[in-house]
Design a protein that fits this description.
Strand content: over 45%
Shape: globular
Helix content: 10-25%
Largest sheet: 9 strands, antiparallel
Number of strands: 18
Radius of gyration: 22 Å
Distance between the termini: 18 Å
């Protein structure tokens, strides 16, 4: 086939596909293609190029008191395969100074606004610092699916003893893998951290719009939900 005819057919196919897409997505795609190389544009039109667009950066940070926390979308993790969509997210937190350890344990939580569920490959690590200063110890902990696996949480014991020495939880990271049936083209990813100010385990509550808070409110400190809005699009084979 002549190169001129190939270009016409590719352009026609792209226009037909674009006609069925929301204007907001089209704007993001045009913006992404404008900054891409010619080869990337050609690969995109030929169905080889996966373009992820977003309304916000890949990560969002919040803080309250001595705590900083961040939710992040792993940018290259998006995959659509055999009728399922897969992504991976990360939630991290860090105390800039030693927190109150009167509470038994804290809770870190993540969720999405769409029909994603947590997979068994999720993991978390908590960092423990000696009370008198010294070397940090990192401990792997379990990620627990909640709300019928539509959210994930990690329980964070605030103090632990290693080799007879007392440590406090100074930070941590939760990496969660998600899957959804069908092709998901947009989702909100959010995370939050609840700190017990007395002997209580914060309970995670998920509201509409993927807002996360903790109860009992009078006994748990927490800040705003950190979130990322992401759009995904991939040209299907045969189109």
């Amino acid at each position: 086939m002549r190169s001129g005819m190939r270009k016409i057919l590719i352009t026609a196919a792209a226009l037909m596909l674009a006609a069925s897409m929301p204007l907001s997505v089209l704007a993001d795609i045009r913006s992404g293609l404008a900054s891409a190389s010619r080869k990337a544009q050609a690969d995109f039109l030929n169905g080889k190029y996966v373009l992820m667009t977003k309304n916000a950066p890949l990560s969002d940070s919040e803080k309250y008191g001595k705590l900083r926390y961040k939710v992040k979308l792993i940018g290259n993790s998006y995959k659509y395969k055999k009728g399922r969509t897969y992504i991976r997210t990360e939630f991290s937190w860090n105390w800039t100074a030693k927190p109150s350890t009167r509470g038994a344990q804290d809770t870190a939580a993540m969720t999405t606004s769409e029909l994603f569920t947590v997979t068994g490959k999720s993991k978390a690590v908590i960092s423990y610092m000696p009370l008198g200063g010294g070397r940090t110890i990192r401990v792997k902990v379990k990620v627990s699916p909640i709300y019928s696996a539509k959210a994930a949480q990690v329980s964070v014991p605030m103090t632990r003893t290693f080799a007879g020495k007392k440590y406090y939880a100074s930070g941590g990271t939760m990496s969660v893998r998600w899957k959804a049936y069908g092709r998901v083209t947009w989702t909100r990813i959010s995370g939050n951290y609840g700190h017990g100010i007395t002997f209580v385990d914060p309970r995670t509550v998920i509201n509409s719009g993927a807002v996360i808070y903790f109860t009992p409110k009078s006994l748990v400190d927490y800040g705003k939900t950190a979130y990322v809005d992401a759009k995904f699009w991939r040209k299907s084979k045969g189109r």
